[in-house]
Amino acid sequence: xxxxxxxxxxxxxxxxxxxxxxxxxxxxxxxxxxxxxxxxxxxxxxxxxxxxxxxxxxxxxxxxxxxxxxxxxxxxxxxxxxxxxxxxxxxxxxxxxxxxxxxxxxxxxxxxxxxxxxxxxxxxxxxxxxxxxxxxxxxxxxxxxxxxxxxxxxxxxxxxxxxxxxxxxxxxxxxxxxxxxxxxxxxxxxxxxxxxxxxxxxxxxxxxxxxxxxxxxxxxxxxxxxxxxxxxxxxxxxxxxxxxxxxxxxxxxxxxxxxxxxxxxxxxxxxxxxxxxxxxxxxxxxxxxxxxxxxxxxxxxxxxxxxxxxxxxxxxxxxxxxxxxxxxxxxxxxxxxxxxxxxxxxxxxxxxxxxxxxxxxxxxxxxxxxxxxxxxxxxxxxxxxxxxxxxxxxxxxxxxxxxxxxxxxxxxxxxxxxxxxxxxxxxxxxxxxxxxxxxxxxxxxxxxxxxxxxxxxxxxxxxxxxxxxxxxxxxxxxxxxxxxxxxxxxxxxxxxxxxxxxxxxxxxxxxxxxxxxxxxxxxxxxxxxxxxxxxxxxxxxxxxxxxxxxxxxxxxxxxxxxxxxxxxxxxxxxxxxxxxxxxxxxxxxxxxxxxxxxxxxxxxxxxxxxxxxxxxxxxxxxxxxxxxxxxxxxxxxxxxxxxxxxxxxxxxxxxxxxxxxxxxxxxxxxxxxxxxxxxxxxxxxxxxxxxxxxxxxxxxxxxxxxxxxxxxxxxxxxxxxxxxxxxxxxxxxxxxxxxxxxxxxxxxxxxxxxxxxxxxxxxxxxxxxxxxxxxxxxxxxxxxxxxxxxxxxxxxxxxxxxxxxxxxxxxxxxxxxxxxxxxxxxxxxxxxxxxxxxxxxxxxxxxxxxxxxxxxxxxxxxxxxxxxxxxxxxxxxxxxxxxxxxxxxxxxxxxxxx
Amino acid sequence: xxxxxxxxxxxxxxxxxxxxxxxxxxxxxxxxxxxxxxxxxxxxxxxxxxxxxxxxxxxxxxxxxxxxxxxxxxxxxxxxxxxxxxxxxxxxxxxxxxxxxxxxxxxxxxxxxxxxxxxxxxxxxxxxxxxxxxxxxxxxxxxxxxxxxxxxxxxxxxxxxxxxxxxxxxxxxxxxxxxxxxxxxxxxxxxxxxxxxxxxxxxxxxxxxxxxxxxxxxxxxxxxxxxxxxxxxxxxxxxxxxxxxxxxxxxxxxxxxxxxxxxxxxxxxxxxxxxxxxxxxxxxxxxxxxxxxxxxxxxxxxxxxxxxxxxxxxxxxxxxxxxxxxxxxxxxxxxxxxxxxxxxxxxxxxxxxxxxxxxxxxxxxxxxxxxxxxxxxxxxxxxxxxxxxxxxxxxxxxxxxxxxxxxxxxxxxxxxxxxxxxxxxxxxxxxxxxxxxxxxxxxxxxxxxxxxxxxxxxxxxxxxxxxxxxxxxxxxxxxxxxxxxxxxxxxxxxxxxxxxxxxxxxxxxxxxxxxxxxxxxxxxxxxxxxxxxxxxxxxxxxxxxxxxxxxxxxxxxxxxxxxxxxxxxxxxxxxxxxxxxxxxxxxxxxxxxxxxxxxxxxxxxxxxxxxxxxxxxxxxxxxxxxxxxxxxxxxxxxxxxxxxxxxxxxxxxxxxxxxxxxxxxxxxxxxxxxxxxxxxxxxxxxxxxxxxxxxxxxxxxxxxxxxxxxxxxxxxxxxxxxxxxxxxxxxxxxxxxxxxxxxxxxxxxxxxxxxxxxxxxxxxxxxxxxxxxxxxxxxxxxxxxxxxxxxxxxxxxxxxxxxxxxxxxxxxxxxxxxxxxxxxxxxxxxxxxxxxxxxxxxxxxxxxxxxxxxxxxxxxxxxxxxxxxxxxxxxxxxxxxxxxxxxxxxxxxxxxxx
Lengths: 898, 898
Prior knowledge:
2 copies of one chain form a homodimer.
Chain A: H1 7-26, H2 31-41, H3 45-62, H4 65-100, H5 105-130, H6 139-146, H7 157-172, H8 180-198, H9 208-227, H10 230-241, E1 244-246, H11 247-270, H12 296-326, H13 328-336, H14 340-352, H15 394-401, H16 432-450, H17 460-481, H18 497-513, H19 518-526, H20 532-549, H21 553-560, H22 575-578, H23 581-584, E2 592-593, H24 598-607, E3 612-616, E4 624-629, H25 630-640, H26 643-657, H27 673-677, H28 683-686, H29 690-695, H30 712-718, E5 739-743, E6 749-753, H31 766-777, E7 788-789, E8 794-795, H32 801-811, E9 815-820, E10 823-829, H33 830-838, H34 868-879
Parallel strand pairs in A: 2-3, 8-9
Antiparallel strand pairs in A: 3-4, 4-7, 5-6, 9-10
Helix pairs in contact in A: 2-3, 4-5, 4-7, 4-8, 4-9, 4-11, 5-7, 5-14, 6-21, 7-8, 8-9, 9-10, 9-11, 10-11, 10-19, 12-16, 12-17, 12-18, 12-20, 12-21, 15-17, 16-17, 17-18, 18-19, 18-20, 24-25, 26-30, 30-31, 32-33
């Protein structure tokens, strides 16, 4: 984004543009003359011209967005469908195994427990080995990536493979895990890979901004093709990944998600699973009178309870992770045996759900009656896979929970029959309420625990199921309480518990993810929108409660994983309008001046950990000229103290000593300072740096530094003490005089002189090296080779916290300089902003209420580890600090250590 | 937004914050000691303390967002419901009139035509007189306002009243107009008024950023309570008003829109219109098999045709407006008789829809059979208002179009009965296809024409109805073509033409408005989501076609009204990634240097029309220090040449002449430059201005500038130049010597000297004034009193067009300076960006394809009229230009004109 623009990127873009223009000129144009020639000569030439134009047209279209989006949608629909198929097969295999062993309960138990354990362990091991980045949901990482942070290895083919296979195994095990979060990640990886693939045809896929846009669309596709919910998918992906959303991306998301959902459902039709395209979990609630106005309080209760439940889920999930990390003995043990934890968790959960055991109380086994399955609703995905004696799969559970009938005994009508998979909810020795309560309680902690397993998995679906069960519980209670409905008129409208289940599912998943678009998702999933107002009310209430208690699940994971984040501004925190940048900014910042010395750079690097250092005109004027990255400063410093330069100085020394012997040959050195920076500095950018350039000559011949002219002896010795760089530096000298240096990694210098018959001057001793370096540090810095961001983001002191937050999230900044008419007065980084929002005392004592105070303990600053090599270099200087006046004279004794 | 931050605003915010802190400290704290006293004394004191705390809590809550949003939702629901009621009454009155006169066709015609004409004319006249801003949809204006542009008088109470009453009358007339667009505007006005009202209780409603957020939520409420469609409302309002959307506003929108839709529907239930809360236009399509996969091509055809139709509608609408404007004779005539145009249009339309006349072919009169109305669907709003002999209202039309039955004769089943209001579509001498085609064609141009009437009206609803009719036409054709459905299996699933109507309505309204959220709106309106995929496909295709042909209706109006806008980046215009700021920026820009003279300011103002001028350090360094508004520069200049200063100079002159008389009293002058700027300049802000301040001393005693030391007479005169402020400047002198100045607005100086017994010196003659002004112009500018934006938005040369567009739309900028390491090198404004996007040749010859080329002729730059008074002042100087050397010396003759 803006503010990170470096000279390098600029020149890169320029080169790229030039290349593209050339390319465009290249591919079609050379053919033109021949075409025209053909046209004038042959008779079928018009056809050929036409064909060529068509071909060209097609190639040009490959680069267009809609082609990309259609391909993305298609691929993701296929992936989603294939994965569903594989998961269903896995589940079927388990059931077949379990069913085949019904003679012996112990064998049954073994089969029941071993199968998921093996699958989960394989999934965990596979992801661990291939790509550990594939672990977990992926939505937190996508949120971070869409903020502009580059996370390595998160969008590669390896991760894609690991995630797809790992997720299939994990879901095939029957654990309470979801595929929705991982699908967002899979779709994003798919988009990244696809754009890399398509860039072979067109050149437009390399642009960073475009990639971000495509990733945003991909997130929508991920949710869309997972639930066949294009609208809900787009909205959900916006809510969980973005702070500010470009409406033009929204478009792309809709297009791709619709296409993807369409193909996903068409595949089901083609596979004869369904007759036509309908919703995934179709419901059949009555349309005329979906609910009574007087039922609304019950829906509100569901919403509020779901809010608390959602917050509890997030809290529980985080506590489990933190407990595992904090308990050192557990942690150490688990680190050694990484696959033990997944296996253990799976073992516990599958033992508890074992149908003949405790599982019978949570919609597990149906004791005796094997009912026909013809009465199953059509919308059910693979209903034939569900024998009567089994635990319900997640999908079957949802279908039963959204069922139209009322399970509890209603008044006189006692003859209610549990049909088909509804059987699972009936228990001979208890009633449906007990089953539901046990189901909810057990599933709750199981899901919270299962989602901490290091396999690719999401928490949306488990939470959705729990919410549906809770809603159903409330609905059944209402139905038992008002057997003939609440309405007092002549018409009797019974209460529909299935509607409550829909409301509960939307509310709880909304509370856990802090989204309202779950409402849209349930409409698309059930194919009915008649409960829109109850759902919206419940979701909003659930969100209001959950947001005031806990961060969303994804934000929680972001903080656990210590990814960079910016907390949201809560509702109604007016204080944000009154706190201003000057209250929160860091005033005492380190800066680089245009006329500073290398020693100053060193000091600045020592004294601060900022990733970007401001470059000011001078310490007096403090006019901000730009910002320079820490790594750039480090590179400047290390290139100034580099062994190459030392070698050259030594070389220079030798030459001046042995000048009489070499007087007949011309000696020239060419070290281009630009080579070290990778890209040549452009003239336009150099202009303002004139003062710096005047002082440090940038001529091709790197004349020996003025300060070190008198210590030529030390310089000579230092010259051969190569330390930092391990690569042989070729082309240092000119053809007249070529030196080839090879440096052994162990530190001892290995010197090979080509075309030089003289005995080798021995390398400098450490003290001399230090002395030489001290001299180097006193030179003025030559910024011409550094990449300077010429327009870092600036704020003014009066900018409100609210506005600052907006700008930071809009532009994805991680720092901004505070200026006052060109003068640098301070700096604000994500850290300060985070502190201010989360409620630390600000500079002026304005206490900001912490919206997420309960969470502050796990907040840690994300400082970046410095490049250790550089660090050591500085440390050495710090400790072996040699006073300038100690040894100004040259010491010729090059072997004796002091 | 960022970049418009002025020093003034900053200090204002500071004062405001201080005030609030004081206030917070004031209201609750002074009571504390007494409370504690009471607590220790009385026994019921705890209750009182509790009550006080509750009161305080409630007051503190008034300032919170959710209270505001609930109030907004409530008010808007009431407004919407009341307006619907009034409109229904109006329509009923017309029908009653028409029905009562059924003895005479001529009288019937008179009544039929006069009634709407009177209503529309009244509406047009009323809005014209009270608030012309209320005319039209309001969405274009809201889009502009949400971009950060301040449109005057658009959010006032007057406009609110005009819009509500005007809209009620306009819709009550039965013309093909909609209430949706105006409702967005009404909701925004309501929010603005509400926040002004609530600011009486809390102080947090004054913040600009917050107001924008609340307006965004209000737009959602507007759509939400108009259609009882909270989700669609939020999405639609986002799509039509925003380019970048903050997800936190999305929240607010959902909350308020849901509440509003809820109340809106609850009112209907309480009014016994409905039994419970259901959708507005409830449909009853079958759930099991909503559509066949093989019907999808038909849906796609609807989408594509709607795309063309939508583009045609926008084109037609614009052409009508342009025709009216361009035809000078018509225009002149219409300008004189403003109410003639509305009356004429109404007359034509109502004549054509007269049921016994042509109206019978467009669902107008039903010849004979008066069928019972009990069979009407329940969801119908006010069905009892629809007698059989009437033209259908918009709502009734929609209900009939979405009907579940098939109108066309299907195979053998000839005995189909048109029931209730469905009668309207049957004509004895033609079939339903003819009726539908005539209806679509006539309504199409009628709607396009009617929406140009200068009354508050929207085009969404008419377009929606036309789309539904078109969809129905296709559906009926399909039903006639495949009487037993397409499906080849054993089950016969007949085609549901109502589903086609839903698809058509969403597609056409989506095409006209360039939104996809119309899909969500139809789901919420019909209460069924089973057709989600056909609707999404049709809407996306319609959008793709319409967007490539025409701008959206709202953008079209924005351009017609010449509001500032930024075109969207189209799909797949990769060139945007390669065009860069340096290709499009204006290099030859005027600037103000820190050490310039007033004469330079004058020249700059003459030579450019830029609203913001860059302030650079010097012409050599070109380091950008900030930007200064044009009006500020004008103010600086006019204060320097103000009559007050002239008067003071004169006064000085008199004093120096009469110095001998006053030699015994010490004379000191104190003019605080800070007083004139309204707020004291803060020391931190002043520092960077040091160079300027060195030249212009900022000590309390305003000593004469160094440059003009030789004209000490003039400098002394300058001393009394209390500038800019028209208020009497008190405290200018010290107690020794107090002068009170009053300036008559007419220009003639009025001098009041307090405590000074000398006779008034007569004003200068014009030549002397000119001479004096010439002297003034040669002084160095004192920027200390000017408001300088210390951090204007900066781009670098390499920023791509794409990124620039993003930043401009994100931050709502209208210009940005291009810098290169602090140096100003150019400027980009909305105009350049617009040009570059819309396809002018850029500097490097990169031809950008115009996405909206057909529309470019109506694009005009929106230059702002300068303050004429100031302009005249400069013009005078330009023409009467007097050379410096003509009269440097002071002229003592103050009465004689030259």
